[in-house]
Amino acid sequence: MVTHIEHRQIVILGAGFGGIGLAIKLREAGFEDLVVLERAGDLGGTWQANTYPGCACDVPSQLYSYSFAPNPEWSRTYGRQSEILDYIRAVATRHGVLGDIRLDTEMLDARWDESESRWRIETSRGVLTADYFLSAAGVFAEAKYPDLPGMETFEGTSFHSLHWNHDHDLTGERVAVIGTGASAVQFVPEIQPAVSALTLFQRSAPWIVPRMDRSTHAVERLLLRRIPLTQKLVRGAWYSLIEGFGLVGFVDNRFRHPYELLGRIQLRRQVRDPRLRAKLTPDYMIGCKRAIFSDAYLPALDQDNVEVVTDGIAEVRPRSILTRRGVEIGVDTIIFGTGFTPLPGIFDRITGRDGLSIGELQRKQPQAYLGAAIAGFPNFFSTLGPFGAAGNQSAVFMIESQIAYIVDALTTMRTRGARRVEVRAGAQEDFVEEMRRRSADTVWLTGGCESYYTSDGQNAGLYPNWSFEYRRRTRRFDSDKYEVGA
Length: 486
Ligand SMILES: Cc1cc2nc3c(=O)[nH]c(=O)nc-3n(C[C@H](O)[C@H](O)[C@H](O)COP(=O)(O)OP(=O)(O)OC[C@H]3O[C@@H](n4cnc5c(N)ncnc54)[C@H](O)[C@@H]3O)c2cc1C
Prior knowledge:
31% of the residues lie in helices and 19% in strands. The chain has helices spanning 17-28, 46-49, 81-94, 182-191, 218-226, 228-243, 246-251, 256-270, 274-279, 297-301, 358-364, 395-416, 425-439, 443-446, 467-474; strands at 6-13, 34-37, 101-102, 107-113, 118-123, 126-135, 157-160, 174-178, 197-201, 208-209, 292-293, 306-309, 313-317, 320-323, 328-330, 333-336, 350-351, 380-382, 420-423, 454-455, 458-459, 482-485. Strands 1, 2, 3, 4, 5, 6, 17 and 18 form an 8-stranded mixed sheet that branches. A 5-stranded parallel sheet has the order 7-16-8-9-12, with no helix packed on it. A 3-stranded antiparallel sheet has the order 13-14-15, with no helix packed on it. Helix 12 runs parallel beside helix 15. The protein is globular and about 70 Å long. It binds flavin-adenine dinucleotide. The site of flavin-adenine dinucleotide has 33 residues, from helix 1 and helix 12.
């Protein structure tokens, strides 16, 4: 029996900002034979998956949105999760790509078939082949859990911020929050008033700087709607303000002082207790890991029902947590705010020409060209690949740069009548070497912290320079760096 295998010119993985943006821009360029695979039951990626209380973006929405789909209607400076999800859905609908998305379809395995010169992609709903395989699978997809002795004996409720248990009522409970990353900073102020006791287990204090969030005014929205230029100006202003932080990141870390002063002033204003202030003072340079914007986190920690524990966890017991100093703290619910695995398992299931998976390659060291292509992976491109993410700048800005690059690559191929494209190993090596050289003096490596920005003392995959420089480099597909063949 011959089983029918569906063939598509382009298969895109993931229906977040990356996958949807790719589908829209590829369609605009005349590529219509495409499909987007999405394992979840809805589109939106990050903004569909994370539903914890207080979930919102950290980059102002006027900037954290597609440049080709400005939205004058944001209700706040920083859109909340549901508003961002609505926005992504509205953009996908308006640009006619909803029908391209296959929900509840997980990609299980993808490998390059050299003899056929195409990708073979196994999904939970059958097999596809594709001329081009484009990954927009995201990097913050899998919950990371710390290794806590005795966790399996815990008899209370526990969950990760990525899998928030909305059926579980925290009112009046003794809650332990583990981790102080960006998600914890957002949900702690939301749950603190309801719980009877909140113990925050902190390994290292994050730098918290003023968020200045507010509702947008009707007049403001009218102005943005009526005079599109104002939207461009607002977007440009936020972009420049955030980009300015690059001075600390990769120019000279002495530029950190005014930012750190801002953080210290906020800490002094919002936390009365000097002992608590000492615990909440970071011991590394700002920018070493992602600085967090919040006006509500520090005041929440200064409440009587909150304790910040910095001693570390010795053991989890059925109804309590024992600290390394031997203090036993009663706990009904444990919430993990411990972030995401650095390299989601999905990358172990994408295999290139030599039988090696992206996961195997990247675990040795981050390797890619412009964060968008990988040697050994013909007809494959990705968004937010190694050295294609920014420190504090909007991920959507980087994603749009990659989309433009990928669309130009496929258009170039079409114009030349070529069928196969693969970045040259030498071009990739030079690029990775350049990235390493430029990373050496960045605050990510010299700022005295450990974070997901680094791995084994090396830059884990951020672009170590201005995002506008990255935009310039990805504006056009540089085919001389690739083997392009029939
Ligand atoms: C809580 C939170 C807040 C954030 N806030 C900001 C912010 O303020 N500013 C900023 O710049 N960035 C922020 N980020 C980073 C954010 O992830 C990116 O901005 C952006 O949403 C990434 O989009 P993406 O399309 O690349 O990936 P995602 O949004 O992660 O989408 C990837 C999609 O691929 C799907 N997928 C993965 N594997 C498979 C498979 N095997 N089969 C089928 N489908 C698969 C996933 O289900 C998902 O829908 C935040 C992240 C989190 C988690």
